[in-house]
Amino acid sequence: MWVKICGIKDVATADAVGALRPDAIGLNFYQPSPRSVTLPVAAEIVRRLPTAVEPIGLFVNHTLPQLREMIETLGLKTIQLHGDEPPELVAQLPSVQVIRAFRVGEAGLAEMAAYLKACERRGRLPDFCLVDARVDGQYGGTGHTAPWDLLSREYHQEWPPLILAGGLTPANVAAAIASVHPWGVDVAGGVESSPAVKDLGLVREFIRNSYAGNAPAN
User: Fold this and answer.
1) Would you give the distance in Å from CA 195 to the centre of its chain?
2) At the topology level of CATH, where does 2-212 sit?
3) 128-139: pLDDT as tens digits
4) Is 211 exposed, middle or buried (0-12, 13-18, 19+ CB in 10 A)?
5) pLDDT tens digits for 76-126?
6) Strand, coil or helix: what is 203?
7) Among candidate residues 80, 42, 87, 78, the one with its CA nearest the CA of residue 59
8) Is residue 25 a contact partner of residue 184, using CB atoms and an 8 Å limit?
């Protein structure tokens, strides 16, 4: 099970979370978010991270030149597109792995299926699909859970590996893994003591409970 702790915005927290050895941390460059990080701080975080912990840049509706500049500056190998980025943009990023986020509600996965078909026509599928809860007017970080039963029934095995997000906590992540059988899990608010403030005890418990779920990766 792959585990990402998202929304790391300062060096001290990055050092402490990195020492707990998740597989990845998320650096959020969406400025309206309370979890957003500045480029200089992100560069210092990346410099200090253990090699076993991958930094992943999270972007919302950034332009291709902006993305390329940030990727080069930080040496990112993986980025997460969490906005309204079109399939054409995914195809224009061959040098990095792309996690494409989708906001899913009870209406189902038809929108995701259409997006992936459009990516396929352009010769480049995302490397991973991250599924978050759909909340109108918000790009993520809402604390709402994605529809686990729907994902378990309808997520196609031939699609990119699934990363489950949305409302995950140390208390429910094992149940989520058992229900959905994702390739990985992603958490931000579920391991915070207050908005954008990570609780290291919760982070440690989330990582432990995620690995204890023993769900096979897709």
Assistant:
1) 18
2) TIM Barrel (3.20.20)
3) 999 998 545 444
4) middle
5) 999 999 999 999 999 999 899 999 999 987 778 999 999 999 999 999 999
6) helix
7) 80
8) no
